[in-house]
Write a structure and sequence with these properties.
The complex is a heterodimer of chains A (about 110) and B (about 120).
Chain A (H helix, E strand, L loop, with lengths): L8 E5 L4 E6 L8 E7 L6 E6 L4 E2 L4 E4 L5 E6 L8 E8 L10 E6 L1
Chain B lengths: L3 E4 L2 E4 L5 E7 L6 E7 L6 E7 L5 E2 L8 E7 L2 E6 L8 E7 L9 E2 L3 E5 L1
Parallel strand pairs in B: 2-11
Antiparallel strand pairs in B: 1-3, 3-8, 4-5, 4-9, 5-6, 7-8, 9-10, 9-11
The chains are: A mainly beta (about 110), B mainly beta (about 120).
Chain lengths: ~110, ~120
Amino acid sequence: DAKTTQPTSMDCAEGRAANLPCNHSTISGNEYVYWYRQIHSQGPQYIIHGLKNNETNEMASLIITEDRKSSTLILPHATLRDTAVYYCIVSPDDKLIFGTGTRLQVFP
Amino acid sequence: GAVVSQHPSWVICKSGTSVKIECRSLDFQATTMFWYRQFPKQSLMLMATSNEGSKATYEQGVEKDKFLINHASLTLSTLTVTSAHPEDSSFYICSAHMTGTNSPLHFGNGTRLTVT
């Protein structure tokens, strides 16, 4: 079973920041937080991952709370092409178990 | 960046026949690959872990005799759906990890199987 809880869906205006929350209250010390997204009829695309510290790359920022029980994925300037299902996954290794994710709809 | 390629991207077959799906890591070696299945409007479900040079590890409820996995080289894993039935129609996705690194898992673009 997935160990994360995410809202089923969210909307975001184009050009605004999209903040996607994820709860993982039972996360273990050796488990990473991974974020992937899936655009319709494609394979999942890696976005970012982290263990304890906040992370940033060209796609997004990942903010992990100090107790590591929750995290937020931030897309700083959402575009229409960011419309997708976003999955937050916690795992100590490569074996990723997907939950239901958040369907992000970016609107003009 | 790491690229995982699946072939074919879609396939239609008749009930009772077998279908082979290939998953290749194009620019890296992958000791381990993973196979997922996704039904419409559902999330990805992990089917099995494919290990180079050894038997695959199947998740609970996945029939190993129906979904044959072969990982004969460090860049290729195949999934064969044997005696396919309409209920096997699904989106099959593979993923691979670059051996010897802590890079994240990369996914192929999936294979849509339709069994008529």
